[in-house]
Design goal:
Layout: H1 4-17, H2 21-40, H3 49-72, H4 76-90, H5 99-113, H6 121-132, H7 138-149
InterPro entries: Asn/Gln_tRNA_amidoTrase-B-like, GatB_Yqey_C_2, YqeY/Aim41, YqeY/Aim41_N
Organism: Natronosporangium hydrolyticum
GO molecular function, one term: carbon-nitrogen ligase activity, with glutamine as amido-N-donor
Length: 151
């Protein structure tokens, strides 16, 4: 097909033609976030698919956190809007790992790095995040690392 950014652009055109307002607005927001990241670099350049995925993961986390905040504040209609946008963003993210798969990858990363005890949380998280490679929410990974380190 091409790059992830090209896919987002193509899907934006399709959504615009189909008059899918939520999808159109969400894809515009995602492409804007990608462009902002490209311009923020010292030498403006195209982002790789991995870098675009990182931007999309960050945008998904924002939607998730905003939906939770709206829900807690009793603003159900705004929470529903954030969740709807999140479902559009998730179409472009790698498939999420199950809890068992996260546990296996974290265990392997901890064993490979020889990490033990709560004092190793920082380096262990870095290794675990690299192993998971954006296929699981950071909070899930952190919770699993903490559990396996016994902290």
């Amino acid at each position: 097909m091409g790059t992830l950014k090209e896919q987002l652009t193509t899907d934006l055109r399709t959504a615009m033609k189909a008059r899918e307002q939520l999808t159109t607005e969400t894809l515009r927001m995602l492409l804007s976030a990608v462009r902002n990241e490209e311009v923020a670099e010292a030498a403006a350049r195209e982002l790789s698919d991995d870098e675009v995925s990182t931007v999309l993961t960050r945008e998904a986390r924002k939607r998730r956190e905003a939906a939770d905040a709206y829900q807690q504040a009793g603003r159900v209609e705004l929470a529903d809007r954030e969740r709807a946008e999140l479902s559009v963003v998730e179409r472009y993210l790698p498939a999420q790992l199950s809890d068992e798969e996260v546990a296996e990858l974290v265990a392997a990363a901890l064993t490979d790095g020889g990490f033990q005890g709560a004092q190793a949380m920082g380096p262990a998280m870095k290794a675990a995040r690299a192993a998971v490679a954006g296929r699981a929410d950071g909070a899930r990974v952190a919770a699993e690392v903490r559990r396996q380190l016994g902290g």
